[in-house]
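[Q] Does anyone have a clean structure-token version of this?
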Amino acid sequence: MASAQSFNILAILAILVPSILATEFLVGDDKGWTINFDYQAWAKGKEFHVGDKLVFKYPEGVHNVFKVNGTGFQQCMVPKETEPLTSGNDVVTLLNPGRKWYICGVAKHCAVGNQKLIITVLPYTVSPVPSPAPSPTYYGKRYTA
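[A] Here you go.
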């Protein structure tokens, strides 16, 4: 019985902890999602993990966001079957580890304005919690202050 309860608690924690500890990344920081910005330089040195969120901010109607594959990224090719994100405040939750590619599909913003982002999402890992240090003992007796 106790092991079933422990399992349930651990399962709930495994679901909740990543969302609680998730980092929200404003793509492009104060520049937002725009043309003529080096998103590869922006992403360099950042660690993206499962559960983190990418926020694409831009004036509504001026840009959009498409999730593409590697070929679509290289060729700035918008997938026909995919609907773009268009709100101007688009939030993408990173659900799986691996490479992720995003482009703007407006005009030639991707090809000419370098409006494209590639990241690698790492698996979510929980750091082990160190066990508390034992209370000091003197001659076999615990000392408390």
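[Q] Thanks! Anything notable?
[A] The longest helix spans residues 2-20.
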